[in-house]
Amino acid sequence: MAGHMSESSARASTHRPTLRALLDQMLEATMAKDKAAVLATFAPDAVFTDPHYPNPEMRGLDDIAAGLDWGFLGMERFGFTVVGSFMSEDGNSGAIEMDCEHVLASGRTLTFPQVFVAGMEEGLLVRVRAYEPYGPGGVAMAAIRVQNWLLRLRRKTAGGGRS
């Protein structure tokens, strides 16, 4: 009948996970260091962005797998506690807020809040972007500090020349 879903289509659409369930599945698999299970939550052309990784913008399953290899090697234990979530009306995009407690391979514990903003299509993650409440490290942070220093110097010089 026109306008009605077939029984198999209706069944398929009801078996798709919600975005929140998919994100929970990804986090659980990450904490278990189960690379195959993490990758199973992502679409083949997904983009995963996280400034903690050597390649902060991972495009496609191969890049994401390489990022996971790096993360699993350097981390003794991942810990994610979801403290809030916000989903769009259509359920295809949203955010989860987490308290993270990770233990590095060296034994050092890292605790910090983090937010993942994500989108899904056809039951798979197509984008996940991580946000932390601190600035970038490394060369990016050095460049920011130099820019801030130059700005202060210019202001001081401009202010010192006035009568």
Helix-strand blueprint:
Layout: H1 7-14, H2 19-31, H3 35-39, E1 42-49, E2 57-59, H4 60-74, E3 75-77, E4 80-87, E5 93-104, E6 109-121, E7 124-131, H5 138-160
Parallel strand pairs: 1-7
Antiparallel strand pairs: 1-2, 3-5, 4-5, 5-6, 6-7
Structure summary:
The protein is of the alpha+beta class and 163 residues long. The chain has helices at 7-14, 19-31, 35-39, 60-74, 138-160, and strands spanning 42-49, 57-59, 75-77, 80-87, 93-104, 109-121, 124-131.
List keywords for this structure.
about 160 residues; Nuclear Transport Factor 2, Chain: A; SnoaL-like; Nuclear transport factor 2 family protein; alpha+beta; NTF2-like_dom_sf
Give your account of this protein's structure:
With 163 residues, this protein is an alpha+beta fold. The chain folds into 2 domains: 7-132, Roll (Nuclear Transport Factor 2, Chain: A), CATH 3.10.450; 134-163. The chain contains 5 helices and 7 strands. The protein has helices at residues 7-14, 19-31, 35-39, 60-74, 138-160; strands at 42-49, 57-59, 75-77, 80-87, 93-104, 109-121, 124-131. Strands 1, 2, 3, 4, 5, 6 and 7 form a 7-stranded mixed sheet that branches. It is globular, with a radius of gyration of 21 Å.
List low-pLDDT spans: 1-13
In sequence order, what are the helices and strands, one letter per element?
Answer: HHHEEHEEEEEH
Number of domains: 2
Give me the CATH fold name of the largest domain: Nuclear Transport Factor 2, Chain: A
Largest sheet properties: 7 strands, mixed
Number of helices: 5
Shape: globular
Task: Determine the strand fraction and express it as a percent band.
Answer: 25-35%
Pfam family, one: SnoaL_2
InterPro entries: NTF2-like_dom_sf, SnoaL-like
Protein name: Nuclear transport factor 2 family protein
